[in-house]
Structure formats: C-alpha cells, structure tokens
Design a protein that fits this description.
The chain has eight helices and eleven strands. It is an alpha/beta fold. It has two domains: 138 residues, Rossmann fold, CATH 3.40.50.1220; 79 residues, SIR2/SIRT2 'Small Domain', CATH 3.30.1600. Belongs to the sirtuin family. Class III subfamily. InterPro entries: DHS-like_NAD/FAD-binding_dom (IPR029035), NAD-dep_sirtuin_deacylases (IPR050134), Sirtuin (IPR003000), Sirtuin_cat_small_dom_sf (IPR026591), Sirtuin_class_III (IPR027546), Ssirtuin_cat_dom (IPR026590). It is found in: Cytoplasm. It catalyses: N(6)-succinyl-L-lysyl-[protein] + NAD(+) + H2O = 2''-O-succinyl-ADP-D-ribose + nicotinamide + L-lysyl-[protein]; N(6)-acetyl-L-lysyl-[protein] + NAD(+) + H2O = 2''-O-acetyl-ADP-D-ribose + nicotinamide + L-lysyl-[protein].
C-alpha cells in the first residue's frame, strides 16, 4: 500500500508561474486595498470593483502555466497516495495533472450565488459582470473565501492531514488562519517538511525538516530526501 503524502501549498508555488503573491509590503494587492476587494463589506460597498479585481486575477490565472514544482508533485503520484490541499484559488495543480486537489479558499474559475454559497458554477467565460445572475436571481460573485468568511473545506482538510504519513508544506509562511493550523493536525508518526525560501525564519516545531529553497528547487531536494 502506498504511503499517504499530503502537500499543503500556498502562494509561493504559484509565484513561480508568474502569479504575484498575496500582498506587497504596502498592504496592497496589485494596487487594490484588500479591505475593498476581499471582504464581504467590500462586496456590499462596491461589487463592481470586486468583480473588476477578480476578473483581472482570473485572466492572469488563465494565462499562467504550471511550473516544475506543480509537475513534480504529479510525478510523486507514481510512488505515493498524493493529496494536495491548497490555499491558492488558481487551477495550476489540476492543469499540471494532480488528481486529488482540495481548495481551501475557493476557485477563481468558478462563480457562486451572492445569496447562497451552495450554488456554485464553473464559468464558461473569463469574466463575471454586474447583472450576471444564478438560478435564484441573485448576482454572481467569485467563488472565493473572503476575509471574515468561514472556510467550508477546513474540516475535510483536517481529516486528510490527520491521515498523512508525510506532510509537505510548500510556499506558505503559515500566517493565514485557520488554514495555518493544519500543521498541528498531523499525527505523531508523520514526517513533516517545510519548503520555502524563508523556511529558516518561519516558526515551526523542531521535528519539521526545513528546505530553504523556492518551490521548484525545494521539491527536487525533497525527492532526494524521501528516497533515502
């Protein structure tokens, strides 16, 4: 039976495909104030601005291509039972070929009802416009989890993590909660690896093996370590 390898990815892995990380040092996300475009209050105040922001992000995601790290994780499926849990809203893992991907913060290429999150739709175009509505008659919004909203897939992610024989964190500083608490859900016998250029500055338990490299280089070093 294959060992269970669970990979938890953040913005760092997508950055190597040209997608910018969450926010700059000035607290802005490509010139947009986070409070205005990634909160329920921002949506209520100016839904057109929110749609504009995510339409731009969606276009970037469509144009981006999976990188070496995404592809390497697919290769691991030959040796391990691999499940990917990602904080990213792009679909680069799926396009690389990963067969089991759980999105914690939603998927940018899907839309949902602004009235009920149960109504989710795969988008046929790259844009959501004002006036686009679901079967309930409500305005469509991006299928993403905003600040202040519940993370619906968190319990499922915890269950997957608890069963891992190997848990690998790639490209996240473990600062976004509640997702960052997943590391605490690993079982006592689980081997844990942290791959991030700033791994040495991230506070993690002493048993975690740090690989202070970017995602592509770090996954190759991980491949060697797992083969030992």
């Amino acid at each position: 039976m294959k060992k269970k390898l669970v990979v938890f990815t953040g913005a760092g892995i997508s950055a190597e495909s040209g997608l910018k990380t969450f926010r700059g040092s000035d607290g802005l996300w490509e010139g947009y104030n986070i409070e205005e475009v990634a909160t329920p209050a921002g949506w209520k105040k100016d839904p057109a601005l929110v749609l504009e922001f995510y339409n731009l992000r969606r276009k970037q995601c469509v144009e981006a291509q999976p990188n070496a790290a995404h592809l390497a994780l697919v290769d691991f499926e030959a040796l391990y039972d691999v499940k990917v849990i990602t904080q990213n809203i792009d679909d680069l893992h799926e396009r690389a070929g990963s067969r089991c991907v759980l999105h914690l913060h939603g998927e940018i290429r899907k839309a949902q009802s602004s009235l009920s999150p149960r109504f989710v739709y795969r988008m046929e175009t790259d844009e959501i416009r004002m006036g686009d509505s679901c079967e309930l008659g409500s305005q469509l919004r991006p299928h993403v989890v905003w600040f202040g909203e519940a993370v619906p897939n968190l319990e499922k992610a915890i269950d997957i993590t608890a069963e891992a024989d190997i848990f690998v964190v790639i490209g996240t500083s473990l600062q976004v909660y509640p997702a960052a608490t997943l590391l605490q859900e690993t079982n006592a016998g689980c081997k844990v690896y942290l791959l991030d250029p700033n791994a040495d500055q991230i506070s993690v338990p002493s048993h975690v093996v740090r690989i202070a490299k970017n995602a592509g280089e770090g996954v190759e070093e991980l491949r060697v370590l797992l083969a030992e």
